[in-house]
Give the backbone structure.
Amino acid sequence: MGQVPVEGAPLYCLIGNGRLSRHLQHYFDQLQLAYRVWTRSGPPLSQALENCTHVLLLISDDALLDFLHTHPELQKYTVVHFSGSLATPLAWGAHPLMTFSHQLYTCEEYREIHFVIDHRAPAFETLLPGLPNPHHRLDSDLKARYHAECVLSGNFTAMLWSHFFQVMENQLGLPRQAALPYLKRVAANLQSEGNPLTGPLVRGDSATVQRNLQALEGDPYQNVYTSFVQAYQA
Ligand SMILES: NC(=O)c1ccc[n+]([C@@H]2O[C@H](COP(=O)([O-])OP(=O)(O)OC[C@H]3O[C@@H](n4cnc5c(N)ncnc54)[C@H](OP(=O)(O)O)[C@@H]3O)[C@@H](O)[C@H]2O)c1
């Protein structure tokens, strides 16, 4: 799988075939980097590891430490995991600051992804040779906070927007396309300098906030709205 290995060049073993693994496979194909993919339903791991230089752990965070302890033979290789919140002496962390769903991206889109690597990790060129990506180092003690912020900003806004689209289509009879220019503007305003926030909280329209909360009665997002009001006031 991947390119034919060239003597002296890195040969990656990708453990797992989930979302991030499939994105990396696509990116490695575009960069012409050699790799193999191992999954737990396939042939023995020793076969996939043959002649490899780097092992990339692309499995669920909850399975990572157990996997590393069960496979001490991995310590012969440069082992990298991609969890944003975990730190372990058994593998270097390299978290891509991006979201990877099922749709694959272009090479240009992959190239601009920043990797946040452990502060004591080897040089990026040694850790992930052949990847031209920008990177930054982060103290392991700060990883948990860093990842909590990634989840809040990326995953939770995705939940909010998915909820909005669903209500638009299923409860209000409005097409989701109607909300897309709004989504685009929110994203564009966030990217520019200055305070991007508008709406009743900023204006201090407390009666509007109360009407919004009443309208959300019975919806689990009513509590989310209340938490945002509290966070804004704090
Ligand atoms: N997706 C993202 O947006 C994203 C972003 C940044 C970092 N990451 C990191 O990337 C890593 C992978 O995440 P993902 O989103 O790609 O996960 P995913 O799509 O859920 O895929 C997880 C993979 O892990 C395998 N797996 C789970 N437990 C295993 C075990 N005990 N032994 C061997 N394989 C096991 C699964 O194999 P089976 O198919 O056999 O169940 C599956 O292929 C995580 O550390 C995550 O934090 C993900």
User: Anything to note?
Assistant: The pocket of NAP is lined by residues 16-21, 39-41, 58-61, 63, 67, 82-84, 95-96, 99-100 (CB under 6 Å). The mean pLDDT is 95.
